[in-house]
Amino acid sequence: MPSSTSFRFEDATREQLASLAKDHGVSATDVLSRLIHEAHATRDHPMVVFRGPAHRRRAGLAGGPDVWEVVARMRELSGSEDERIGQLTTEAPLQPVQVEQALAYAAAHRDEVMAMVEANEAAVEASQQLAAERRALYR
């Protein structure tokens, strides 16, 4: 359950916070919570960055794909974890340490990452179904 905490900010910092909140259409508390979460995550997983708008922030590898994309591809491959990492780094411009960082982040934030993987899988399935229905029109 959320609890109240008081902070003192310099005027410029408070104005920046208010501006961020306004730009993203969220409260200052939401901005602070997100920034703290992201700072903590990037401290624990230094190759992970965050991107996207406030309503759809997602973890990704610096200069690389989103974490959920790494996890989704690893799920498609076969073999041991090391074999899968080897396959992935052969087909994508990634180093094994980057894949390992993405997997470490995903393990620590499983619900967040798996929600994105599952949303993508559902979108692919819906797209494939629509394509099949369109093809059926011409038979």
Annotation keywords:
139 residues, mainly alpha, 2 strands, 66% helix, extended
Write a short abstract of this structure.
By secondary structure, this protein is mainly α. The chain is built from six helices and two strands. It has a domain of 76 residues.
Query: Approximately how much helix is present in the residues?
Result: 55-70%
Number of strands: 2
The shape is: extended
The biggest sheet amounts to:
2 strands, antiparallel
Helix/sheet category: mainly alpha
**Widest β-sheet, arrangement of strands:** 1-2
Unreliable segments of 5+ consecutive residues: none
Helical stretch count? 6
Rg over C-alpha atoms, rounded to the nearest angstrom: 19 Å
Order of helices and strands: HHEEHHHH
The fraction of residues in strands falls at 5-15%
For this structure, the quaternary state is single chain
Q: What's the pLDDT, averaged over the residues? A: 94
Distance between the termini: 57 Å
Q: Could you characterize the architecture of this molecule?
A:
It is built from six helices and two strands. It is mainly alpha-helical. The chain has a domain at 61-136. Strands 1-2 form a two-stranded antiparallel sheet. It starts with 10 loop residues before the first helix and ends with a helix.
List the helices and strands and how they pair.
Layout: H1 11-24, H2 28-44, E1 48-51, E2 58-61, H3 67-76, H4 81-91, H5 96-108, H6 110-136
Antiparallel strand pairs: 1-2
